[in-house]
Every structure is written in structure tokens, then in C-alpha cells.
């Protein structure tokens, strides 16, 4: 097998779709119509951890179902709900129309984060959990395909996990691909996308809300989002190497 990039020190970024046993986030998102974004984990003095999550769904009832399922789970110790102050308090877009913030205490031995870290995979963005699957954005300082497969197989074996790679790109390859894809945007899509970047719409934390950006452009929010989503679809599609690492 060849290398993905001629400069191994650059590493690659991956998005991993993961299932593994005894995980409360997978159980509650599979059992309900709500989903989760996992942000930060805090270590407790008793060996457990407290995780900060955003729960999102299309209805308040689905959120309540997820919270109730989380409280009833044998894999969690406590659940604290904290209402969000407004729609765009946090760092990025949340797909659901109803959201709430949760702090959940649980045993870290039921997570896959240690197995990923032990093989050199470093989380570099919030983890999204939907429909009983975790979606991990990670970086690894490795570009050789055979070595990447071996690392992923090590995580699979250690956690009895199912792991598929849904996105993969090297720093250099991604930059070149994005530059080429900008040329595929319509004039309006490019104008709105570049304005969003100028106003740090994609920053972390986000510096402008969708409503504010729509007002700046002079469009309805739904129209703005349609332009941005079409632009993002053209710019951010995964490259052809995905299938090489998936099982």
C-alpha cells in the first residue's frame, strides 16, 4: 500500500463512525428521537467523569425522552439539565429545533476515548452522537495506509468496536481540494460563504449567529442556510480515500 501523503509528519484528519458496547450515549440516541453533541469531559475525584453534552431534537418531547432514558440508564450516575439561554450560545450549528445542555456523570471505562488515544488518535472537535452511532473527528500523526489500518484495528479489538471512516484527508490534500472546489461555487454561494468566513461564522466559538449573518446579507435565514449548505456540500465532501480504511 502507498502513502496518502509524501510528508508523514503532517498526519491526517479522520471522521470515525463508531459503535461499541456498554455506552449510554449510543443507547439513548438509538432508543429516542433525540441526539447528542459531546463537548468537554471533567474528571471527578471518585474516578468517574462528568461530560458536558448538548441534546438536540425536533421536539421538546424527544428531548425529555432522551433525558429520562439517560437517567434510567445503568451506565450513568447523575444527570443535570441546564437550559440554553438562546439558540446560538454554543460554538457551532445544532441541527435540532429544540436543544438543552446536560451534565452527565458516568464511568469512563465505558467510553472509547482511551482506546483511541492509546493508538494516537486525538479528538479535535466535539463528538456527535446520533441514531446509536458516535461520529469522532480525530487527528493522527500518520499517513501510511497500512499503519492507519493497524491502528484502527487495534481500537476495534480493544473495545469490541465497529469503526467506519467517513472522511479522511491530509492537510496538504485538503487545502488543494478546497481551493479547487471553490471554483465550483456559484457567484452567490461564493459571496455568502466568503462573507460567513470573514465574520467568523465557522470559528470556534462562533462570532456571528445565523440570524445576524442573514441580516448582514439581506436574506431570510432559510435562504441563507440553503446557500451555505450547498456551498459546504461542494467544499467539504470527503475524498476518495475513505473506503480504504473502513471495515
TrEMBL record:
Keywords: Plasmid, Transcription, Transcription regulation. InterPro entries: HTH_bacterioopsin, WH-like_DNA-bd_sf. Residues 185-236 form the HTH bat-type domain. PANTHER family: DIMETHYL SULFOXIDE REDUCTASE TRANSCRIPTIONAL ACTIVATOR. This is Bacterio-opsin activator HTH domain protein. The lineage of its organism: Archaea, Methanobacteriati, Methanobacteriota, Stenosarchaea group, Halobacteria.
Amino acid at each position: 500500500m502507498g502513502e496518502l501523503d509524501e510528508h508523514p509528519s503532517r498526519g491526517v484528519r479522520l471522521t470515525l463512525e463508531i459503535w461499541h458496547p456498554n455506552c449510554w450515549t449510543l443507547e439513548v440516541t438509538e432508543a429516542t428521537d433525540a441526539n447528542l453533541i459531546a463537548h468537554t469531559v471533567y474528571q471527578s475525584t471518585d474516578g468517574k467523569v462528568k461530560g458536558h453534552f448538548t441534546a438536540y431534537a425536533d421536539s421538546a418531547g424527544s428531548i425529555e425522552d432522551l433525558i429520562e432514558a439517560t437517567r434510567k440508564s445503568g451506565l450513568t450516575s447523575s444527570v443535570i439539565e441546564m437550559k440554553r439561554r438562546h439558540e446560538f450560545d454554543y460554538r457551532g450549528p445544532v441541527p435540532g429545533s429544540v436543544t438543552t445542555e446536560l451534565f452527565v456523570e458516568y464511568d469512563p471505562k465505558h467510553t472509547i476515548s482511551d482506546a483511541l488515544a492509546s493508538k494516537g488518535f486525538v479528538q479535535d472537535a466535539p463528538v456527535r452522537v446520533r441514531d446509536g452511532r458516535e461520529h469522532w473527528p480525530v487527528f493522527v500523526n500518520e499517513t501510511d495506509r497500512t499503519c492507519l489500518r493497524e491502528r484502527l484495528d487495534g481500537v476495534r479489538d480493544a473495545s469490541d468496536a465497529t469503526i467506519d471512516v467517513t472522511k479522511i484527508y491530509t492537510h496538504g490534500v485538503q487545502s488543494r481540494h478546497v481551493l479547487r472546489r471553490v471554483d465550483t461555487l456559484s457567484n452567490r454561494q461564493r459571496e455568502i460563504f466568503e462573507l460567513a468566513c470573514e465574520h467568523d461564522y465557522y470559528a470556534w466559538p462562533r462570532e456571528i449567529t445565523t440570524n445576524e449573518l442573514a441580516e448582514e446579507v439581506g436574506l431570510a435565514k432559510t435562504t441563507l442556510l440553503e446557500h451555505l449548505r450547498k456551498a459546504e456540500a461542494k467544499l467539504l465532501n470527503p475524498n476518495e480515500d475513505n473506503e480504504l480504511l473502513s471495515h
